[in-house]
Every structure is written in C-alpha cells, then in structure tokens.
Amino acid sequence: YAMLLSLIFLIVLVAAVVGFVFRHEIKTNFESNLNLALRDYNVTADRHSEAVDTIQRTLHCCGVQNYSDWEKTEYFTQKGIPQSCCKSQDNCSEEDLKDPSKAKLKVFVDGCFFLVTSTMESKMSVVAGMSFSIACFQVI
Fold it and tell me: Signal peptide span per the entry (predicted)?
C-alpha cells in the first residue's frame, strides 16, 4: 500500500514539474495543432473538425488568432467561415460567411488560442492546489 501511494505521489509530482517546465512548448504545440486543424477542417468529417467546432461554440471564439484565419483555408473558399463561429445560428447565412466584411458582424471575432490558453492557465492553480493537497495527504 505504501509503495502504491509512493508511486502515485511520484506520478503527480513528475506531472506537475513537467507541466510547469514545458508550458511554453505545450502552448506552441497547441497553436500549431490548432492551425493544422483549421487547415484540414472538414476535409473528412473527423474528430479534429468536431473539436474545433466545440471549442469555437463553447468559448465563443473563431479561428486561431481571430476570425480572419479562416480566410487562409480551403474550407473558406468552398463554404466560408464555419457555422460554429456564428454568434446566432438563426442570423448566419452561408453568403454572409463567405464575405469577410459581412461575417465580421455575425461571427465571434476573438481567436481561440488566447482564450484556450488563458482558460488553461486560470485552471492550473486549481489543479496545482488539488495535486499538492493529495500529495500532502499521501505523505501523512
């Protein structure tokens, strides 16, 4: 039992240290993967496209840095900006989404990268506190 608790303690400790030390690399990888997901969006209906839609709907954001990131994608030339960027699904036509000047008024203009990373950083203190309390409990 003591060995199992020691192993869990070490895993929590290593995860916390690795997360802290490599946080910049995690951000960089997340940004590049988000850019790749936008580039390959809906080429095949895969889980990456679903993840992009979920992030955009949940955090009320669009694109990586802003909504204009979609203009560089193949999906934009075919269908415009995705519906998941729309502020209101009822007031968002495909013609509006193909025109960036009209789309600016109907979609979320903020990018998802900043929102996701700021959300993660705000939750890190909670995760760190819980990890520390579990580790203290294990030591006792």
Answer: 1-19
Q: What is the pLDDT of residue 118?
A: 84
Task: Give strand pairing partners of 107.
Answer: 86
pLDDT of res. 10: 85
What's the CATH number for 1-139? Answer: 1.10.1450.10
Averaged pLDDT, groups of 10, the chain, 140 residues long: 84 79 84 88 76 89 89 86 86 83 86 86 75 74
Q: Domain ranges in the chain?
A: 1-139
Q: Report the distance separating Cα 32 and Cα 37, nearest Å.
A: 9
> Is the separation of the CB atoms in 62 and 70 below 8 Å?
yes
Facing residues of 86 across strands? 107
Neighbours of 125 (CB within 10 A): 9
